[in-house]
Design goal:
Order of helices and strands: HEHEHEHH
Distance between the termini: 14 Å
Largest sheet: 3 strands, parallel
Strand content: 5-15%
CATH topology: Rossmann fold
Strand order of the largest sheet: 1-2-3
Number of helices: 5
CATH architecture: 3-Layer(aba) Sandwich
Number of strands: 3
Shape: globular
Radius of gyration: 13 Å
Length: 102
């Protein structure tokens, strides 16, 4: 958790995808910390569940949007195509989605 916050504060990314995983509070703490350390960073909460209570808590903790894990591959491919930088190949998008712990 500390490394994610440190990196977000140092690099101030446009977007941070934060896995809302068990224990849930750690994912919510990361959301809050990113918003404090890098207020312009848009936080997307990532989960394999569409539970309203989890969505509400993530949004209250600073996430701007909720992202279902199965949509990650398509989203990463789309962003890479649209931005043309940094290039994320289909294979890498799948690896990122597979490795997301949520």
């Amino acid at each position: 958790m500390g490394e994610a916050l440190e990196l977000a504060t140092q690099h101030k990314p446009h977007v941070a995808v934060v896995a809302v995983s068990l224990p849930l509070l750690k994912g919510l703490e990361v959301n809050r910390g990113i918003r404090r350390g890098s207020p312009l960073t848009q936080v997307l909460a990532l989960s394999s569940q569409e539970r309203e209570d989890l969505i509400s808590m993530a949004l209250a903790a600073g996430a701007q949007s909720w992202l279902i894990k199965t949509a990650v591959t398509s989203l990463l491919e789309s962003v890479a195509r649209d931005r043309k930088e940094p290039h994320v190949e289909r294979r890498e998008a799948r690896r990122l989605a597979r490795d997301a712990h949520c």
